[in-house]
Structures are given as C-alpha cells and as structure tokens.
Amino acid sequence: MTDAIARETIHIDDIDPEFVDALIAAGADRIRACLQCGTCSSVCPSGRRTAFRTRELIRKALLGLKGEVLSSPDLWLCTTCFTCLERCPREIKTTDAIILMRNMAVREGFMLPQHRKTSMKLIATGHAVPINDANMTKREELGLDRVPPTVHSHPDALEQVQEIMRRTGFTALIEGQGEED
Amino acid sequence: MTVSQTYSFFLGCVMPNRFPNVEKSIREVLPRLGIHLEELEGASCCPAPGVIRSFDEPTWLALASRNLALAEKAGHDIITGCNGCYGTFKEALHIVHEHPEKLRDVQKVFKGLGLRYRAEADAKHLIEVVYDLGPDAIREKVVRPLDGLEVAVHYGCHLLKPSVLRPWKKSARPTFLDELVEATGAHSVKYKDKFQCCGAGGGVRGSNVPVSVDIAQEKIDNVLEAGADCVLNVCSFCHLQFEMSQAQLNKELGEERYRLPVVYYTQLLGLAMGLGPKELGLHKHVVSTEPVLRKVLG
Hints:
The structure holds two protein chains of two kinds.
Chain A: H1 18-26, H2 39-42, H3 54-63, H4 66-71, H5 83-87, H6 94-107, H7 113-125, H8 133-141, H9 155-167, H10 170-175
Chain B: E1 5-10, H1 14-17, H2 20-32, E2 35-39, H3 52-55, H4 57-74, E3 78-80, H5 83-98, H6 100-110, E4 123-125, H7 126-133, H8 135-141, E5 150-153, H9 157-160, H10 176-182, E6 187-188, H11 204-207, H12 209-225, E7 230-233, H13 236-253, E8 262-264, H14 265-272, H15 290-297
Parallel strand pairs in B: 1-2, 1-3, 3-4, 5-6, 5-7, 7-8
Helix pairs in contact in B: 2-14, 4-5, 5-6, 12-13
C-alpha cells in the first residue's frame, strides 16, 4: 500500500467559465460563498450510503466543470430533503442549486429513462402517478368515487393541462429525450 | 367550539390513485372537526417537486399555478394531505410573490385558456389546519383514548423545510405533530434520526429504488428498535415509501421480517374518535394494521 494516489488533472477544455454565472442567473445566488466545509455532505441521507457528495458537486460547479456535473448520475441521488440547505453556514440554497443543475442537465439531454417515463405519464394523463384498475376497485370498495374528481374525470381539464405543457415546451422537451430503453 | 371552515381539497396523485384508504380517512375525519372539503374538480398532479420541478421548473410553476387558480376561482384556500404537494404550492406561491415577472410568465401561458390567476389563494397542509384547532380541541373529540399505543412520529421533509417558507414556530425539531398524536392518548416515542428523510423524494424512488429503499430501511429499523407499534405520517408519498419498502425488503429477504404498520394521522385520530377501522381504510394496507387495531380495540 505504498502507491501514491493517482493524480487527477482538470483540463482547461473541461472548464466552462460561464457555467457558474448561468447558475447564479437562474437563482443560485450565493453559491460562490461556498467555503467547502462539507456540512452539506455530512447531513445528506443519500451521501450516507452512496458516493454522492454535495460538497464535491458544488466545488465542481464552481470550477465550471459543466459537462461532468450535468452528465453525472449522482446529480439524481438528491432526495430534496433540504437538510443541507437548512444547515449551510453560508446560507447557500444547495437544494435549489441542484434543481437548477438538473433542469440544465435535462436541457442538455441527460435524463434518466425512468424519469422520462414519469414525464410521459404526466403528459398523457395529467398525473405523474395515474389511476389503474386495482385502485379504481379499491376506491369503490372504500365507498369513494371509482375515478377521482381530478383530470381523470374531466377530459376538458386534461386537455387544458396538456395545452399548458405544449406551451411551456415540456412536451417537446420530453419527446426529444430519445426512445425509452 | 367547532368553527366551520371550507377548503378546496387537493388530492394529488399518490393518495387518490394508490392509497385511497388514506383519502377515505381524511374525508371521514376532517368534516367531524368542522373542516369542510370541497372537491377541486379537474385538478392535476401538483406537479411533483422532486421530479417535474427538477426537469423543467417553468412547466412545474405553470401547472402548480393552474391548480392554485382553480382554488382561487372556487374562493377557497387549498388543503392537502401530501407534503410534496404542500411543498410545491408553498414554493410556487413564494416564487410568483417574490418575482412578479414569473407571475406574468404564467399568465402568458394561460392566455386564452379561461384561467385567471392572481396568486391569491393560499395552500395549507391539513395538519396545519388541525393544529390551528389545537391539541385541546382534538382531545375533546376523543371517545376512545389510544392509551398504551407507542407511535413513532415521522414529519417528512417538505412539511418542515425550507423552514423560511413554512409557518411553524420552530425551524428545527418541532413538536406540533407529537402534540397532536399525544392528544389521542397515544405516546410519541423517541427514536434515532427522527427527522431523517423517508428516501422517496427527489425522483430517487422513481429512478434508484435500492438507494431509496435503503434510506427507508434505516428509518424503519430505528423505529423498530424504539419498540414502536407503528410509524405515523402525514404525507401520501412517505406513506407509500414505508408501505412499499417493507414489502420489497421482505421479498428480498425471503421472510416477513418487516411488519411495522404505517398509519396516517387521520386514521389514528379517527380511531380515537370512535370510528371503525373500515371507515378509515385501515383494512386496505400493504402491511397489516392488525397489531395496532388489536391494541386499540382489544
């Protein structure tokens, strides 16, 4: 065990100096105040059991390593529990910054196939978790309406929801994410 | 002492479409407390803060605003029993109140759709409305005290955080839900990492089941170690997480090791108010609620 730890070199080509500015413009306004204390990583429920490190993610973002940050599956291990945001001594809205980076990742074409599926359900039914036969039966047995009084019962309301998703570009964004696995 | 108040009942996705038994208990219990629920016809997904907001925030904001616009038209505030939906509405309202240009963006998207939105209706979690009545008012409704029942209270993240956008007096380690549980005669047990996340949010349950279930397992193990009879929640997604994760873990283990009943607050309160288990949907759980019922009903 005498080998030195392999040196990690950051290449200038991998640095996008405008990345942090874009994050700040999108709302992660205090991110430059990060002092790398690691409080965020230490309170993270995902970080307890995976290699996901919030501190590392923020550091890489500050270095401008846009490609590495946006393509990393680790970006999707945050449960958005907001504990890091509550505890950050620099009052950086860590969770919000992660959500902004996820938005950027999706626009760059990095989306997990399961998340595309959830989005397709929302586009088709107006619900990320739509009703199914078993639960319609369960509702009836409980004395509830077989179909809940949501978009599921109102085709015109569903059409309105779908039109909103077309207008915001969501439908095109999701359909542009390639085919499902 | 019951003062009547009316809210637009926002169901979301998980509650009506996966756990209608929880919905049933809310519909039975809240009107008995003077909290009247009006249907929010044509509501959609809130949409989910961990997934849809993560994919495209402007779409999330527009759809959340549409649901709020429906309540605004009805002339009521929204009431929800899901922490995720609650978080979506609180954050969406904050964004348009702080950034008028974002409200204008939403109104532009709504143009010609017959939707009027001024961000005037508020959104409340049902537990917030129940706590406003107060633990003493709840105690007065109890006809069957749940003496001897050991309850592990799980608040869930989005009910409490970000704390600057929440109404609770204490930003850390609150006690309001414990007080409401103890008003039924049950005892709120201390357990390790009580305020830890259930592991379902942020799109993790949807995309990385092993990590998500592992977080839930840690929490359930802590609850079991404290000797609790059940884990109590006020969020349809936390509820799903605790119910489904136990089934998944048992399948992986090849034995029924995890049998911790998962109870929603209105189910617990309903029992204390003398309602029957079937009226509260307690017979439709993934993990059997029998041990709790045996202790309560004898």
